[in-house]
Amino acid sequence: MDGEQVLDARAAGLLPFTPLMKRPIGVDAEEWLRRCVRVADSIEVSDKAEYLACLAVLGNLVYEPQTVLSIISEETMQESTLIQYIAEKATAEAHQQGIQQGIQQGGKTRVLEDILEVIAFGLGANAAQRFKPALYAIDDLQRLKGLLRAALSAENPEDFQQALDSSNSET
Questions:
Q1: Cβ neighbours around 78 below 10 Å, total
Q2: Residue 89, in any domain of the structure
Q3: Chain centroid to CA 66: how far?
Q4: Model-level pTM greater than 0.85?
């Protein structure tokens, strides 16, 4: 669709889509985006920040986010409830992911401590120190849980070494 016609018509409902439209011959992409923003900014709408944020979101489909933010001020973007919602959602998701990683890491640490305690109790402190570096290099919680069971049943360090080697070959 010819974007220049939409800009000339100043069709408020279509202007946020103009960065996606065909630009005039001889006009580079960044200049086209600047024109689209300039015309959109000149239109009378009830919430200019939302209007420009919609143009920015659509523009991000074909332009680098830095380019869009260099043309539409970050302050204008932050006024938009759409952008605020997206930012809050992203922050909440990052927070939740951090909590999950913390839980998993905490579970790993506890299982590692349990394995070393079982080895130290059943096979001796030297055996626990011997296996410690190899155990701390393991990130898979399920694999560590299997090694905890192996530590409980190991009668000597060689038995546990065999279980450790076996778990290495399974990955």
A1: 12
A2: no
A3: 18
A4: no
